[in-house]
Amino acid sequence: MFLAGTLVNTFAILLGAGIGVLVPNIPERVKTTVMQGLSLTVIVIGLSMAMSDTKDILIVILSLVIGGLLGEWISIEAWLDRLGGWAQRRSGKNPGTSSVSDAFVTASLVFCVGSMAVVGAIQSGLQGNNTTLYAKSMLDFVTSTVFTTTMGFGVALAAVPVLFYEGLIATISHFAGNALNAPAVIACMTAVGGILIVGIGVNLLGVKKIAVGNLLPSMFVATGLKVIAPIVTHYATTLLHT
Question: What's the pTM value of the predicted model, to 2 decimals?
Answer without folding.
Answer: 0.69
